[in-house]
Amino acid sequence: MATYTSVMRFIGPGLKENELPFIRTNPAPEYKYMNFEWVDRDVQITDARPQRGEFSLDSHGFAYRDDPEGATPAMLQLLRDNNAEQIKKVYYPHIEQLIKEETGASRVVIFDHTSRKRRPELGMYENPTGKEQPATMVHCDQSTKGALRRLEQNVEGDIDEILKKRVIMINIWRPLRGPVEDWPLATMDYRTCHPKTIYPTDLLNNTDEYRGQTVTFGYTDEQKWYYLDAQKTNEVILIKIWDSKDDVDAKREPYFFTVLATSLYS
Q1: For 197, phi and psi rounded to 5 degrees?
Q2: Signed CA dihedral, 239, 245, 248, 254: sign only
Q3: Do residues 57 and 103 lie in contact, with contact meaning Cβ atoms separated by under 8 Å?
Q4: For the purposes of burial, counting CB atoms within 10 Å of the CB of 142, is it exposed (0-12), middle (13-18) or buried (19 or more)?
Q5: According to DSSP H, which parts of the chain are helical?
Q6: Is 149 helix (H, G, I), strand (E, B) or coil?
Q7: What is the distance between the alpha carbons of residues 247 and 116, in angstroms, rounded to a whole number?
Q8: Phi and psi of 237, rounded to 5°?
Q9: Where are the domains of the chain?
Q10: HSE of 64, CA atoms in CB hemisphere, 13 A
């Protein structure tokens, strides 16, 4: 399998013992934006296409699947237009069915969706609201604390009763134009993620307004990273964000958009 070198951004050393990392948007005067520093690392990334069918959510934390029904010209145009109400009306039911077929779930609740596009006129690390670029740091969207908060905010019913059954949070990523030759999504085999590199990270606003908790990651040489070469619009990546079940190899999945070529990804 082909392997390439990319630069990834990880959480750096320097936090005090038992100090929780935080990222604060719109910081008020005299309030820090964050209490840690990012460090860039050269990382080897392997093309997963020759073994595409061998990856699974429960073992690796991610999987690749064909989804031609979600990539018809009409559906892709609907997604590119980014009309939230139409996406909820037309695309959400399709994704719900895809998730049920993949996982056997009896109930699927979609929280939201995001459209990202690489914008060369902006700096690599600029990410203004409404013009979200691919993420440039290794992360997972939800910690356990963040996932439980999401459940309380978005799922009707008694959360304690719901958690008596298995609950999984999954992201589904699809390119709206393809094949992808720039900024493909890279994912780590979760079995190579050392527990000491996992940092629950508070998301704050202005002063100390709590917005949730995500996960950032440190680096080790043991990590194994993969991307799907020339991903097409009819190919989706399923990424496990959180799992209420403990006895699985993959509880959550670190991921990152990486630069491997020069043509635009949108």
Answers
A1: -95, 5
A2: positive
A3: yes
A4: buried
A5: 73-81, 84-86, 92-103, 144-154, 159-162
A6: helix
A7: 33
A8: -110, 125
A9: 3-257
A10: 23
The pLDDT-based confidence of 120 (bands split at 50, 70, 90) is confident
Instruction: Give the up-direction half-sphere exposure of residue 174: CA atoms within 13 A in the CB hemisphere.
Output: 21
With H, G, I as helix, E, B as strand and everything else as coil, classify residue 23: strand
Is pTM beyond 0.85? Reply is yes
Identify the band that residue 245 occupies on the pLDDT scale cut at 50, 70 and 90.
confident
